[in-house]
Amino acid sequence: MFSQLPERLTERLRIEGDRPANPSGEFILYWMHHALRGHENPALDIALLTAENLKLPVFVYQQLPELEPYASDRHHAFILQGARDMQRELSARGIGYALHLERAGQRGLHLKDISTRAAIVITEDLPTRPMNQLISRLTESVTTPIVLVDTACVVPIPLVGRAYDRAFAFRDATEKLRQARVRLPWVEQPDPAVNFIPENLPFEPVNLESTDLAGLIRACDIDHGIGPVPDTCGGSTAGYQRWEAFKTTRLAKYARDRNDALLDGASRMSAYLHYGMVSPLRIAREAAAIPGAGADKYLDELLIWRELAYAFCRYQPNHETMTAIPQWAVETLTQHERDERPILHDWETLSRGQTADALWNAAQRSLLLRGELHNNVRMTWGKALLHWTASAAEALRLMIDLNHRYALDGRDPASYGGILWCLGQFDRPFFPPKPIFGTVRTRPAEEHAARLDSRKYSAKVTRPWKAPVPRVAVVGAGLSGLMCARTLADQGLDVTVFEKSRGPGGRMATRRVEPNLQFDHGAQYFTARDRNFVRHVQAWIQQGFVEEWVGRFVEIEGTNVRPRTDPPKRYVGMPNMRAVAGHLADDLSIRPETKIVRIEHNEASWELTDDAHAKYGSFDYLVVSVPAPQAAGLLSDHPLASEARAVPMSPCWAVMAAFESPVQSPWDAALVTGSSLAWVARNSSKPGRDSEDDSWVLHGSTDWSTAHRESTSEVAAELLLKEFANLTSAKLPSIVHLDAHRWLYSATPLMLDRHALFDADAGLAVCGDWLAGGRVQGAFKSGVAAAGCILRKIGIVSNPTAAASLFPKGSGQ
Description:
7-stranded mixed sheet; 26 strands; alpha/beta; 31 helices; 813 residues; 6-stranded mixed sheet
């Protein structure tokens, strides 16, 4: 099937299964995912030659799914920018191409269906565990032969033959192979005679030339809380611009400067190499043509350490687990697993760079803000996690998560190589053994800080994208507004939150009556199903201000009482529901008791006015995070006001009652139908709500609360308390406290899934739980979505030259 191909291509092949070409195949499919270029691309050349030999057209297909691990605005923007350059290349060569971006209205994965229509499927051989699993599933589901091609290494992975544990052994074993190939020019194959795209594709191909990337990404159900990196625009154009600048001005000094994170000694090419937007063959060839220690050392990093990691991942498929590291390292780390750790950090504390270690925080902030981490600092960053986790396996999990989630070069075999090195891979034992590490090489952050000024390094990696720093006003300090503000502030924007109440939280509210009596009279609990929200909730549990509420839950309809056994866990703030808001508000600039009554957009900025006629401004962006009717009033005649005005919101009466002895009830909380009550809960049954009195919160139903909208709190309390007595079928104990609060805007009958409204031209975002299905999780998702709208507006730069000019000379990492 491939006998007529030249050896320089066949040596890169790995065929999954022994299958003949599909005799009914309509075309040769090149499934492109990590070689986003139309030049010096071995997989593309094999596809073109195979298509010519079989007298079939060639078709290039790319898919970008929502559920891809660590999918975010950052990764999506970089990939789509690269795909746009690649689409131009393929179009110029007359090669048919279609991109399926999974998003609202275009959901569903179609690789299997398209593969069944192909005679042969050709794709890149990216030897990481997620891609290996995807290839295995595809191979099992279709009879079409799957051909994997190494597009990333100068020495083809199939020729290496095995995994190596030490760089010197790999260097020696591949020396002849490397020298025979590193300077070879690449001969491009002729363009096809027909520009072919199959008919009846099960999706609408995206034309990246004429589509707004920010709008496309907004429609994807991915993590919108990690913004694009303005100075690192994806694509071959930007990649080669960066390479040329490095080659002509810094490559000669690479051996001297590469380990100093304060200097611009690194090439910063790893993200472009990971996605194959630049040809590693060209990069190696051009570096090899330059004499000197700088180019020699760069080639050692590119061809030895990088390709060592590729071969290791290819021949060690369990490279995401502890089984990947040498046995001596596993044994010594296990022996020291019980060594005392000074502190255990949760995911959120780590991801935001909020530890007590200044250098480590700066390194993590580099990942968070810049999407990259200097390689010499990465070693210290990774090893530090052993001090803050209960086991080496947990440290490995967090290293993979934090690196892959934030780094543009994450999910690459070279990433796994660097991460596993922190646990002893590609290294030797060091004696005598040390606490926690055993004989694994240590790299104390304090020793690194002695040779790298942490303050200067932090200033370098946290420098603003532009001067002045964009200013954002957030109106409303409920959970949605706080999550938006927290996300934006963590990524370097200047954010001010305006809140009409005395403190943040909105309906994540707790009323304290006396030192030992309090009521969560707003949100009663929350569940977590969204994968991004789950990650935060787990961190909050570890930090101690969220805990699972394990109560006796029932449903009541008339006289029928049924236990609620639905699987989602219920969580509450500790020691009250305001704890979550207080955490998110920590170190944010918040102006409490400031009711904004008017907003004005003047040219490119926003000005706000409060009810005392004080003015605040000017702000580059405005986020309105209040209930829909209030948003409509504040937005006035802005087009987004009509969308908010169309969302009805109903009131809810909340009664707070405390009794001198426990109410005789076999349940702690009940969802009620067919009653003036919708919800009743023993507040004192929640964790952390210790009280001598038995405290309850009663929520009126939507219909009843609407009908009694104008009732006094005394009347509402008495009526709902009477209905509560009917529910319990028992005489209520003596009351020690009774009060009621009316939530004027509590819920909407509409099940919206807009997440956020955004006017990009004006820099105006609107968010709230009413836009994302309600509930606490909806508020979280809406706030993140609003932040994402602003981060995409700032971060997606279409012109690579403009992106490069964001930074003054010498500021690159």
